[in-house]
Amino acid sequence: MPQFKYFVGVDIASATFVSCIRTSVLEVIAEPKEFSNHENGYVSFLSWLEKHTNAVSEIAICMENTGVYSEGLAYFLAATNHAVAVEPPLKIQKKFPISGDKNDPKDSLNIAEYACRYVDKLSFWQPRNEILEQIKLLLTTRQQLIVQSTAHKNALHAVNRKEVYNQIAKKVHQDMIRGITIHIKAIDTEIRDLINSIPTFKQSVLLLDSIPGIGITLASHLLIMTQNSLDPRKLSAYLGIAPYQHRSGTSVFKKDTSRHYGPAAARGLLYLAACSVSTHREQFKKYFLRKTAEGKPGKLVLNNIQNKLIKIACAVLRTQKPYIPNYVSVNPTCLRKA
Predict the structure, then answer these.
(1) What is the per-residue DSSP string for 221-240?
(2) Which of 176, 133, 134, 187 is nearest to 153 (CA)?
(3) With contact defined as beta carbons under 8 Å apart, do 201 and 223 qualify?
(4) Is the pLDDT of residue 195 over 80?
(5) Mutual angle of helices 298-319 and 282-293, in 10-degree steps
(6) pLDDT score, position 128
(7) Residue 208 CB burial class (10 angstroms; 0-12, 13-18, ≥19)
(8) What pLDDT shows up at residue 274?
């Protein structure tokens, strides 16, 4: 790990951001200063950094992840070879309970202190592949359109059931549903074209598509999520389907449960995939029936199947071999004995 001397805290808003510089938890060498959250502000911020610091390699910059508001500065700093950590806001806020004033300068000081105290825990940000960013944006837009389509379908159903209704209202919902359907098809085509433009992405999606229950849309989500890690436990935890213990002493003993949150679109598609294979694939169907006959709740068994699909997805990507329906794993110790 690089030996950082300067710790820069950045509190970002829509139009501006405030930054300060620490060299230790107790020493602030540059008081909070406000900059414009646009290209001109980024250049001014860089000049300000150069004035108060020495080598770029000695600077650790930490900011909260505020989505599109923090994206521009993060890209700019990464392009100028600065070490940038983009941390979840809640992770930082938990370290500094609110007491007294709450404002942008105070927050930037807290973020700089957080970077100084937990520098060994920081995950430094790197821009994602541009094609993957486009695919992610298209998947997000697709999910938003699906939500809108569902709302219009429900509204149209209500209109059709009314004793007195207006034809214009009905036509509006029908036109919106038709238009959204056309846009979703266009998005699906664009996602396929983007994936096919990169041979490695195309190969990965083909491998994922060989797994029962996983189609092009879920495969696209998994393609993005598996870029940083092929550890199924980390992926399950990120999706919110990994069970966690909740126990303390002899009085607190709750059932293992997942955290119930994560990327909703990918988690929903994975749940549908688990439902599909537990109904139509003999191997998963037998497992589902056996576990429910043992008294396990159906949702728990489906959660287990989701985790199994994640393990298979990571395995096919790691080995670069398609899914084999009748594959049986062999214990390595048995092979050594043989």
Answers:
(1) HHHHHTSS---HHHHHHHHT
(2) 176
(3) yes
(4) yes
(5) 140
(6) 86
(7) buried
(8) 96
Nearest to 238 by CA among 306, 318, 297: 306
The Cα–Cα gap between 177 and 199 comes to: 35
Q: Give, in order, the Cα–Cα distances in Å from 160 to each of 150, 152, 187.
A: 15, 12, 30
Fold of 6-121: Nucleotidyltransferase; domain 5 (3.30.420)
Answer whether residue 239 shows pLDDT above 80: yes
Helix/strand/coil for 96: coil
Which residues lie below 8 Å from residue 9, measured CB to CB, with a gap of 6+? 19, 20, 21, 22, 62, 63, 107, 108, 109, 110, 111, 112, 113, 114, 115
**Which stretch of DSSP H or E encloses residue 204?**
helix 199-209
Residues 6+ apart with CB under 8 A from 40: none
Measuring CA to CA, which residue among 122, 66, 74 is closest to residue 90?
Answer: 66
Tokens of 337: 């004995």
Strands 59-64, 83-87: parallel, antiparallel or unpaired by DSSP? parallel
Angle at the Cα of 202 from the Cα atoms of 201 and 207, rounded to 5 degrees: 95
Half-sphere exposure of 157 (CA within 13 A, CB side): 6
User: How does residue 243 score in pLDDT terms, banded at 50, 70 and 90?
Assistant: confident
Q: Can you say how many angstroms the Cα of residue 257 is from the centroid of all Cα atoms in its chain?
A: 20
Task: Put the strands of the sheet holding 59-64 in their side by side order.
Answer: 28-36, 16-22, 6-12, 59-64, 83-87
Residue 338 pLDDT > 70: no
Domain ranges of the chain: 6-121, 130-197, 222-319
Q: Sign of the C-alpha dihedral, residues 181, 188, 213, 256?
A: negative
d(Cα 66, Cα 11) in Å, to the nearest integer? 9
Cα(50)–Cα(47) distance, integer angstroms: 5
166 close to 160: Cβ distance less than 8 angstroms? no
Instruction: Name the pTM for this structure.
Output: 0.84
The identity of residue 72, as a single letter, is G
pLDDT at site 257: 75
Which residues share a beta bridge with 246? 254
Tell me how long the chain is. Answer: 338
